[in-house]
Design goal:
The complex is a heterotrimer of chains A (422), B (321) and C (408). Helix content of chain A is 42%, strand content 19%. Chain A has 422 residues and is an alpha/beta fold. The longest helix of chain A has 35 residues, at 2-36. Chain A is globular, with a radius of gyration of 23 Å. In chain B, 72% of the residues lie in helices and 4% in strands. In chain B, the strands form two sheets. Chain B has a two-stranded antiparallel sheet with strand order 1-4. In chain B, strands 2-3 form a two-stranded antiparallel sheet. In chain B, strand 2 and strand 3 (156-159) form a beta hairpin. The radius of gyration of chain B is 20 Å and the shape is globular. Chain C has 408 residues and is an all-alpha fold. Among the domains of chain C are: 1-48; 50-278, no CATH class. Helices cover 72% and strands 1% of the residues of chain C. Chain C has helices at residues 4-22, 31-45, 51-76, 85-99, 112-134, 139-159, 161-164, 179-183, 195-217, 220-230, 232-237, 242-268, 278-291, 296-314, 316-323, 326-343, 356-362, 364-378, 387-395, 397-406, and strands at residues 170-171, 270-271. The chains are: A alpha/beta (422), B mainly alpha (321), C mainly alpha (408). Chains B and C meet through helix 4, helix 5, helix 10 and helix 12 of B and helix 1, helix 6, helix 13, helix 18 and helix 20 of C.
Amino acid sequence: MRHRTWSRWFLAIALLALIAIAAAACGDDDDNGAATTAPGGAAAKGFTDAGYKAAGFKTVTIDSGASVKIGVSSALSGDVKGLGVPIADSAETAGDGVTIKGHKVEFVREDDLCSAEGGPAAADRLIKANVVAVVGPICSGGTRASLGAYDKAGITHISPSATAGDLTTPSRAEGPYVTFFRVPVLNGDEAKAQADFAKNTLKAKTAFVVFDTDDYGKDLSQQFQNFFTAGGGKIVGSPAGYEKKQNDFKSVITSIKAAKPDLVYLAGFYGEATPFLQQLRAESDLKTTPFMGGDGVKNDELISGAKDAAENAYLALPGERGAGFANYATKYKAKYNGDAETATFGPEAYDAATIILRAIDKVAKDDGGKLTIDMKALNDAIKTTTLTDGATGTIKFGNDGNRAGAAVKFFQVKSGKYVELK
Amino acid sequence: MTPLFLAHGSAEFWSDQTVNGLTTGSIYALVALGYTMVYGILQLINFAHGEVFMVGAFAGYGVLVALGGEDISGVMVLVAIILALAAAGAASAVTAATIERVAYRPLRNAPRLAPLISAIGVSIFLSHLVDDGFLDGKSKFYPQIFPTGDLSAGPLSISYLQLFLIGSSLVMMAGLYWVVQRTRTGKAIRAVSESRENAALMGIDVDRMIVATFVLGAIMAGFGGVLYGLFLSSIRGSMGFLPGVKAFTAAVLGGIGSIPGAVVGGFFLGLTESVGRELLNEIPGVNLPNEWKDVVAFALLVVVLIFRPTGIFRQRETKRA
Amino acid sequence: MPERGKLGRAAIAAPIERLRARTWERLPDWTHPLIWFALCILVLVVPTFDDIWVRMFFLVGLYATLGLGLNVVVGMAGLLDLGYVAFFATGAYVVGILSAPDSPHYSAFFSYWYLLPMAVGIGALVGVLLGLPVLPLRGDYLAIVTLGFGEIIRILALNMSDQTNGSSGLFEIGRPDISYLHNLGLTGRSTVDNVQYFYVMIVIAAFAVWFVTSRLRDSRVGRAWEAIREDEDAARGMGINTTRYKLMAFSTGAAIGALGGAIYAPFIDFIAPNSFSLLVSINVLALVIIGGMGSTQGVVAGSLILIGVPELLQFSETADVLSKFDWVGQGVNQVIDGINAVTHLDLSTLPPAEKWGAKLALYRFIIFGALLVAIMVLRPSGLFPSRRRKMEFEHTPEHETAGPAGTA
């Protein structure tokens, strides 16, 4: 029996230790966040020679009659499917009627589940399928986890939607991964625009932050907090994190009610934003408190799921309409009966695929019916592309794989529709 | 990171969190009843109970949508909810009886862990059948038909919905208690859970009473599913997992096998999640944000079990040891 | 109608049992080692298969190793542990945190061969730490507490970003350096970085674990565990220090779990909290029980079925094979069309066969769940019940059912 008494004491001490660790970890979190993601972001180092040396570029040959394979890594099932399928469809739309020196173009879709585990698994399968280049992955977590795999295989990939700032500033000595490019506006830019909008248009002085604990949500919410406080705003209450598939936000909402913020800010996806909004609006004190979300939240399913609760919500969406948008919209409608207006990240995916296809066309050499593609040359061609007729406007890549310059638009839900705010 | 409720009038915050805890707790309690009754009679952790709860939530959703969804108003709201509860209870009962027949009864005399694995199999099968097979990974959302508004007295306030949830679940639990304590079936169930052999010798149809136990627990879980949907709105195939684990935790906390224990355990766990974490945050230097709430709940479970190894209501434990 | 279940069960299970009795048990005893030897040869041939198959067999080997570890806890000592993933995660994170370049605690000093024993040691320690407070608990109380620990470890890994990189995870985990063997000309590579090498590693680990656990089972310690499993009070009465032996079982299992994690981390090259969900614990427990608690063949067979089959359903080869069966689909569709024409039921037709592979991959968990139920209902004591346990089951089924309420 003495054992039992002893072990009770042991447990009590262990629990105290656990709480201490937890408190310490959270304290550290704040310091680090401030240090690494200061407003404006750390200066991106840009591609280095060592980075190019580290990439495993090869030369691939495509037999006569065989098609040129392009991978698509997106969320084809699960919660983020509503974003993922339009991305995959839009990317394939870009390949409509395109042939490369007599070879057909074939798209290979793999489901990366928008997760850090799914990214590398999809990369693995795409590399095995001998794709020449890849559109994707869809989410920041999956992208971060698969950067190395694509780099090792020498396969260039363009993400239409991964927006975490540090994807192009990894901590390794070789600098950014040379095989990675992306079309969307970065989290930092989106967060800055959101903070400005909150301050100038909504006149919000205080905000309560709710975030998905995945890469995208953590990064976006942290950057928003930094910009918002730098602009003189105040974050009230402790930012509340949640995991995907969670739907009990009552306790968080009570904290919001107590904090009385001018703005409720959510960095995450529509799957959880929908019940969150419903529970938020069920609280009589919070019926009219402005709500703002980002690109992960803006989806038709938010409106169809939350219905009245979604009314008046503000959503930020990076990107603009370019010269190629009408063309994309017609083709997307014809092939998939899709609505380009609501396909968040669809135009980006279309542009990413267009850039890839044109670059392949430029560097592929016809060798008596066979096609040889030097992957390094392909990478260079993508890096130096200037796409003037993109669906999201003109696209040029900087020396770190990020898109140079882009705008953020704002929408508000009015009578069950997204209305753009000018 | 200031403790926000010290900066703000705290009484309202605490009363709100208490109401939240009681509401979540009442749902945990409803689900926990099924775990505890089945455990009491079969010594089986019915892992598929969370999925029975899920089926109830979907049945209720179907009824509400069929009756007009968001357009239901006035007195029809009450009618619709009662119909939804009835449908959910029925659907859950049928599901549970089927599971018992297919996955548990053939294993009545098998090694102890075989039914556990079979239960886990049913749980995985059902949740993925709904998620991957029918819904394609998407959620469904309960129509928001319940009249909003608060009943308040001073700093205390409670929304009509939460009042309804807590009140109706208490009524349901009282109903169950009456069935188990006063009816013939209830007495037979208790006899079987005391000793299967002796009950059989008394002429009680053991198999039927086991099914009755599953059905009673399932009806409670089905009711809980509808209340859950009304409260939190989003439902999906995998929704039963976490409430299932929590409800089982509640049953263990209360002392598994004990019906009052399950109810107390459910409310206790609900309160811990909402109020307990905030109380810990009161300690200077401690900051446990929302994402830690499950850690707090499980840590509490460990502490309670260390000091009371057989739960809060430690009844009949000597037999089970 | 109520008899259907039993009939179906007898109809399927009996022939299997008869087949087993006619073949395996009728063979002279001396041939059994030969058959095992042949199986060992098969194990050696695996690396020549296509990568994707080797990967599958690596996972089977990994889960078999974990199964052998959990078997010590559940099968030998009778402690139901639903949070085995906690130790698997511990092993993986020890290696990951110290060897991933992105990790806050990256240290170039530690080679993998230091990290591996360190992971096993820390795993055993975590086993002791978690075990100490909870081991006085019995049966299902222990189950729910261990389940809680499994979840706590995952949530800690997710939220303690400064130690674990949170949901971003750790990647480019240090690969085992075998330049020593390479310099001797024994291996073609100087690091273990392809599936074939990892496969060899996990086979060696599995055999080592098998050797250790089977020695333990037949030792004093093993007999003490057995006594505790059968009746803890009686065991204590006989002078067995039950707490100490239970702790030993818990930490032995934990060390083996950590070993599995330490091999898994560099193989998968990327670890994140979501890789360590309850599903891992369930998988390991299920394969131990489906295989037949306490038997080594059972663990291997269980992991072949529960890990191999879901992997197989995802292979593009499987999809290719399925797509050849379009004629079946067309036939079924014609029948459905016929029914629709007659009854106005408006049933939807099957998609074209080339989509079946993708559907199968999507539905693999539904199949997995049904498989668990089916195997348990057909063979309640597992595929290969260990001989000693089998005798227990056959002779005292009444005791099993009456146990909790009637005896003790």
